[in-house]
Write a structure and sequence with these properties.
By secondary structure, the protein is of the alpha/beta class. The protein folds into 2 domains: 164 residues, Rossmann fold (3-Layer(aba) Sandwich); 202 residues, Dehydroquinate synthase-like, alpha domain (Up-down Bundle). It is built from 14 helices and 11 strands. The longest helix has 26 residues. The protein is globular, with a radius of gyration of 22 Å. Bound molecules: nicotinamide-adenine-dinucleotide and zinc ion. Nicotinamide-adenine-dinucleotide binds next to helix 2, helix 4, helix 5, strand 8 and helix 6.
Length: 407
């Protein structure tokens, strides 16, 4: 087996590494520091809470402007709250409503956001773009902000669970192109991400499960204590309990966020392509856009994770008992672990695409016990087929047990 737990940086790292052709030659090196904050703030839209106003660049008692780019559903649900808040803090917001949902994540939408910046005549540094919505809107607006005048400051207000623990807190932006997820995009940090779990009260329960998939991912790759916490909360996590953010939910969210940031911070630009946070993201990009009806991002990640659990088990990295626990956790949170589109051929094709993305190596993260990873570089089609078969048999047995229990 060709596996490694060490990360291998790619690319050139020092001036000494740069090629020096004969003749006149100049090397240019620069560093761009990145600093941004991620804050959990309850009551973000409460009139006496200045956090959002300050993040927009105001709150000093004088009128100021911002461009609010907001998910259409969030706009419908929270328009009055935003309008009252902006009026209270003397924020003159140009309002741009953007369709959320994966099908809307295409280039023209990002271009439309840049057109809104142009129409407003947004000042290049002093005035902010405020992105409010799920991962789709945050990715679109981040991409638009990175393109407009080669970068204008923006603030993220994630309103879905995936947004709050994943899409809203890193530096990646992007849109789908062709049949490829996030094929066009950039690394462009926001100034601030403001997380108010209260927004989660109105998400669809399916979207709560969708976000839980990414939290389960973090538990599997680096946080065994989070895994146990999740086992204890199966069945109790709903949009309402997420929004209420009691002590257990608060711990789940904060462990997920800090685990994610710990992984992202040393490797923001993905110089190292062995990324544990890519767990469940090897095969899922090909599945997500092909399933009909489409799967949500986290659902596709869950199906991918199930294959990776089987691969880890078949390689002797994960005991039968832990494999079973992990699969049961996914199912317990209402996530799929298999999908008819997921055939051996698709797995092989998806892996080939991942290899391009990962610079010629598979670098597939697999759990080595719960809470730790190892990277595989030599998965074979036969092994993928066996993993599919394993998940198929596990699912059939689990369904059989359910039918048996119902009799
Ligand atoms: N940039 C990154 O690092 C990163 C990381 C993870 C995921 N993502 C991307 O995020 C996207 C998935 O994000 P998502 O799951 O948030 O999907 P989404 O943005 O499509 O939102 C899901 C649905 O919820 C609605 N919605 C949003 N907030 C709501 C609220 N508070 N109440 C009611 N409805 C609300 C939206 O209108 C949409 O219909 C994918 O495109 C994925 O590629 C990006
Ligand atoms: Zn993801």
């Amino acid at each position: 087996m060709s596996e490694t737990t060490m990360s291998r940086p790619v690319g050139l790292n020092s001036v000494a590494d740069l090629p020096k052709p004969p003749g006149l030659h100049w090397n240019v090196r620069a560093h761009q520091p990145v600093a941004y904050g991620v804050s959990m703030v309850r009551g973000l839209l409460d009139l006496d809470n200045p956090t959002l106003a300050r993040a927009c660049g105001g709150g000093q008692g004088t009128p100021f402007r911002c461009l609010l780019v907001i998910d259409a559903t969030v706009d419908t649900l929270y328009r009055d709250r935003f309008a009252d808040y902006f009026e209270h803090w003397q924020i003159e917001a140009s309002w741009q409503v953007v369709q959320g949902d994966e099908e809307a994540k295409y280039l023209e939408q990002a271009v439309r956001v840049t057109e809104a910046m142009s129409r407003m005549g947004i000042l290049r540094r002093a005035e902010k773009v405020v992105a409010v919505g799920g991962g789709v809107v945050l990715d679109i607006v981040g991409f638009a902000a990175s393109m407009y005048r080669r970068g204008v400051p923006y603030v993220r207000v994630p309103t879905t669970l995936i947004g709050q623990i994943d899409a809203g807190i890193g530096v990646k932006t992007g849109i789908n192109y062709g049949h490829h997820k996030n094929r066009l995009g950039s690394y462009f940090a926001p100034e601030l991400a403001l997380i108010d779990p209260e927004f989660l009260r109105t998400i669809d329960p399916r979207h709560a499960a969708n976000g839980m998939a990414e939290i389960i991912k973090m538990a599997l790759v680096k946080d065994a204590a989070l895994f146990e916490l999740l086992e204890a909360t199966v069945g109790t996590i709903t949009p309402e309990t997420l929004a209420g953010c009691g002590s257990t939910v608060s711990e789940v969210l904060s462990r997920a966020i800090s685990g994610m940031l710990d992984e992202l911070e040393p490797n923001l630009w993905e110089q190292v392509l062995e990324r544990s946070v890519d767990y469940g993201h090897t095969f899922s990009p090909s599945l997500e856009l092909r399933a009909d009806p489409p799967l949500l991002h986290g659902e596709a990640v869950a199906v991918d994770m199930a294959i990776c659990l089987a691969l880890a088990h078949l390689r002797g990295h994960l005991s039968q008992a832990d494999t079973d626990r992990a699969l049961r956790l996914l199912v317990g949170f209402g996530l799929p672990v298999s999908h008819p589109v997921f055939t051996e051929d698709l797995l092989v094709e998806a892996l080939a695409d991942a290899v391009k993305h990962r610079d010629g190596y598979q670098r597939v993260p697999l759990t080595r016990g719960i809470g730790s990873v190892v990277f595989a570089n030599d998965l074979t089609p036969a092994e993928l087929a066996r993993a599919l078969e394993f998940v198929g048999s596990w699912t059939a047995a689990a369904e059989g047990a359910l039918v048996g229990a119902a009799k």
